[in-house]
Amino acid sequence: MKIVGLITEYNPFHNGHLYHLEKSKEVTECKYTVAVMSGNFLQRGEPSLVDKWSKAQMAIDNGIDLVIELPALYACQSAEYFAFGAVSILDSLGVVDSVSFGSECGDLEIIHTIADILNREPKEFVHYLKELLNTGITFPEARTKALIKYIKNDYQSKSFSIQSLNRILSSPNNILGIEYIKAIKKINSNLKPFTIKRMGADYNTKEITGKISSATAIRKEIFSSNNLINIKETLPNSSYTILKKFLDSYKSFNCIKNFNDILIYILRTSSPDSIKGVLDVDEGLENRIIKCSNDFNSLFEILDCINTKRYTYTRLQRIFMHLLLGIFEKDFLQLHKKQPQYIRVLGFNENGMKILNNAKKTSKLPIITKFSNYKKIKNEYLHKMIEFDKRATDIYFLGLNKYNGNKANLDFYTSPYVKL
Fold it and tell me: Among 151, 170, 189, which residue terminates a domain?
């Protein structure tokens, strides 16, 4: 049984994802697939368009065999933590042979090279990085420039140009790919990495470009028109049907704007020390956040006010999501040291059931298909970590129509999606 792992958000599952899935099975020669998928909140610091069970159904209906939730604690983090959490889960199953990820460059050799440098942290690279950070630029920008300088001046066996390196380090899927390989190396995993060159529109392209369009463009079109007519050809039929059902139920999709009032309330009632305790809040940023949140009533105006060359929108959005979910640096780092503590199943088909049956014999972590069963597991770190998943679900639905009968504790009442 050869199994390939995919690390996904499926926000929503579109034709580009279907291409990646089919191509991954082809190049890895794997018949079976496992997707580790972020749940209700996402890596770029925003809520998912639809809830995690709807996304799991899209994935299973389009050919993924088993969907596992990436814990909320890792899902809404920087690329490094996001990748580490997902790779650790795939490795912990004990049955996955490879991991396949999309990239703009499609060049595994250069991604490996960069990942190796970042893992080893040669003293010359660290020196360049510190110098650049002292200039006040963002960490991603400083790291890119330090890598380019290190490879140009100190790296002996390079087979690529500085121009290509710069392009690679400015592309989000390449950056995630680097972090996946870093994580594989860090935990000494036997997962074999593969990369599929991204087809069609770039990740950040904001316009619909045909059948393979970016998720960014698809979401932009959905929110601008609040209907699905113009994006129908960009989606498999099953994804379109699930999105339409969600829209019929809630009259809208979820987005960060829906949490405007909740977040402003949190920002205005939080002490400087409380905000300072959030992961990614540097010394002094808490005061800027408080000032801006007192000056404006719109979340986007607040973000504009705080935003500087040093603090990107994505980083600030993640800080806001951490405040929303109550993820503080001390708690996160304590739990991160323990790594993911469980395998949470969101959906599976007949092949997925076979994977689960095998994984029950090999998994280093408990496999949870019925949510309430976690209470039977005597592991305080598991309980603390999974509590963030429950909290994320409860808060997620506050951003949607209040008159649809939703209540708290939906994790206990919602079963994995099964297609047999």
Answer: 170
Angle at 344 between CA 348 and CA 196, to 5 degrees: 65
Any idea what the CATH number is for the domain that residue 53 is in?
3.40.50.620
**Of 335, 368, 402, which residue sits at a domain end?**
335
Can you tell me the distance from the alpha carbon of 359 to that of 191, in angstroms, rounded to the nearest whole number?
15
Q: Which residue type does 63 have? A: G
299 shares a domain with 184: no
The whole domain housing 209 covers 3-106+177-253+339-419
Distance in angstroms (rounded) separating the CA atoms of residues 140 and 330: 23
Residues 6 or more apart in contact with residue 188 via CB below 8 angstroms:
none
Alpha carbon 400 to its chain centroid, in Å, reads 21
Same domain, residue pair 246 and 268: no
Phi, psi values for residue 191, rounded to 5°: -60, 130
> pTM value?
0.94
| Residue 132 structure tokens | 């650049």
Q: Work out the average pLDDT over 114-129.
A: 93
Instruction: Write out pLDDT tens, residues 270-302.
Output: 999 999 999 889 889 999 999 999 999 999 999
Does 395 have pLDDT greater than 80? yes
Q: Are residues 155 and 192 in the same domain?
A: no
Contact 248, 228 (CB under 8 A): no
Q: Which strand (E) or helix (H) includes residue 334?
A: helix 329-338
Comparing C-alpha atoms, which of 38, 406, 27 is closest to residue 250?
406
Contacts of 129 (CB under 8 A, 6+ apart): 142, 143, 146
Across-strand partners of 196? 102
Strands 66-70 and 343-349 come out as antiparallel
CB 40, CB 393: distance < 8 Å:
yes
Cβ atoms of 404 and 264 closer than 8 Å = no
Residues 242 and 187 in one domain: yes
| Separation between Cα atoms, residue 35 and residue 394, nearest integer Å | 23
347 in the same domain as 303: no
pLDDT tens for residues 138-164? 888 898 899 988 988 877 666 667 777
Helix segments in 134-258, DSSP class H: 139-153, 162-168, 172-186, 215-225, 237-250
Q: Which of 16, 420, 63 minimizes the C-alpha distance to 214?
A: 16
Kindly give the interhelix angle for 172-186 and 79-93, rounded to the nearest 10 degrees. Answer: 50
